[in-house]
Amino acid sequence: MELDKEERSRVLVIGGTGHIGKHIVAASIHHGHSTSVLIRDATPSDLAKAQLLTSFVDSGVALIKGDLFNHESLVKAIKSTDIVISAVGPRQLAEQTRIVTAIKEAGNVKRFLLSEFGSDVERVHTVDPVASLYAGKVNLRRLIEAEGIPHTYVCCNGFAETYLPSIGDVTAVGAGPPSDKITVLGDGDAKAVFVVEEDIAVYTIRAIDDPRTLNKILYMRPPANIVSHNELISMWETKTGKTLQIARIPEVDLLEWIKEAAFPLNILLSLALSIFVRGDQANFEIEPSFGVEATELYPDVKYTTVDEYLTRLL
Amino acid sequence: MELDKEERSRVLVIGGTGHIGKHIVAASIHHGHSTSVLIRDATPSDLAKAQLLTSFVDSGVALIKGDLFNHESLVKAIKSTDIVISAVGPRQLAEQTRIVTAIKEAGNVKRFLLSEFGSDVERVHTVDPVASLYAGKVNLRRLIEAEGIPHTYVCCNGFAETYLPSIGDVTAVGAGPPSDKITVLGDGDAKAVFVVEEDIAVYTIRAIDDPRTLNKILYMRPPANIVSHNELISMWETKTGKTLQIARIPEVDLLEWIKEAAFPLNILLSLALSIFVRGDQANFEIEPSFGVEATELYPDVKYTTVDEYLTRLL
């Protein structure tokens, strides 16, 4: 059954020009939702952002001037939507309390999606500096639960674009594929989960007005994309026909390194401890009491596999 | 003229177990200052930190229980010192207002060193997310100036341990030396400055009771350590006898990449824009009205050159 556009939920994205936000905006429009994006400055000085905003407008997105720090603008934007999706970056996580206040005042929001888009912050085992960042996200969950705001927490696990180009080597996170050596943290056997950004956006948009995801955690664990670092390296070696020299860093040494490392390497390493060493993205069962899994809910979505993504890197 | 220990300034380090803090504690003790470190927990559960604290005590450091969020503990610790050096990490930068409040109340501090230890945040040209971090540091400078607190801002420029092991490739900041390819941001000709952590600590300690550094910026620009990325790569190629394949990313593409990149790669890239593309560590004259240069003030300090550091990496 196809719904008319008028019957579909209206979507407001805050942080819609960011890494994951822009994909969510695209998916929302593609799925026929009236979509608006909160924009601080409708005529940005930089070209890339201007082009993105132009593409939004061309595809039918409404740009709404406003920002987190302007309460009136926020309430006004929220009053004209059904669903609020926050995709703000780490620096603005704490400021989401301003969105909560505005949602309470507006009183009409059917679902609020906090900016999560990572591991389940209540089921991670890591250390500072990332532990504190995650603690802030947990506090936000408690706040919107206390306020009784209908919500879905989207735990998409690892962004493919962050981790896969370096074949999972977080010490080389922007460097592209390794040519002869790679660093593995821990024994490399813990399972991690990687999801391509476009797919994260599609699953997110599918979930926003699905009663099965109401007040639940939506996990993304595409079966073909749950892989250990060792497996990921093997897949890459098979594709390239070249064997990589692996430098293994035991967990105990990684813990010391995190303390020694200067900002921002310490951030990357404490993220990696959770994902690659402790396997926090796949080391627990998703119980119906708290969560649902995206590929089970939406089996018709044809997601990009890790294998396909690696082929693109060749 | 050697001063007795009794005549030397007493030093309190806040953040003394961190990346640069632990070197400052060591240098302070080595230079004969009564040195204390504010410690949240004197019996940490992790081995690395416990070992560090033991080594502090063995070398004569006084551990003082207290933290930023306990005002009384802070005032008490500050009342027993002459110099306060903050070396707190990025997450606690803003909390340094608590130190300012405590210093005002204590009323006895001869010099306060904010946690700077990077580029001169008033002479950088970068974009978010790092631009916001730097703006916070600028605010702190204005605050302590408004409060009339005697100070020195230590702009040590680039930590050697952060940038040199990957031969200046910030996309591979924890990965160690490149074996065949390296990423260069911009044209690679902007001059950056790298200083080994132990030397940063020595210059810092030399400056704390030097009248020439009072209410000034102490820059570290060791002449042998002012090098462009291209020069750094050439030095490494000469040492290894191997030529690296260079992938160049123009500034305009880097600016787009920063917007696209997820946390925390976007932090690394916006730091790199300032250091490697725009040359913010060496693209201005140090005027006597605002600054002094460490190797000119302390020519007797034999610093580690970039060349020597690279040799250690072989």
Gist of the model:
The structure is a homodimer of 314-residue chains. Chain A is 39% helix and 16% strand. With 314 residues, chain A is α/β, with parallel strands linked by helices.
Give the SSE string of chain A. Answer: EHEHEHEHEHEEHEEHEEHEHHEHH
How far apart are the first and last residues' alpha carbons of chain A, in Å? 41 Å
Q: Mean pLDDT of chain A, rounded to whole units?
A: 94
Largest interface (C-beta under 8 Å): A-B, 44 and 44 residues
What is the global morphology of chain A? Answer: globular
The description of the largest β-sheet of chain A is: 5 strands, parallel
Strand order of the largest sheet of chain A: 3-2-1-4-5
Fraction of residues in H or I helices of chain A? 25-40%
**Low-confidence runs of chain A:** none
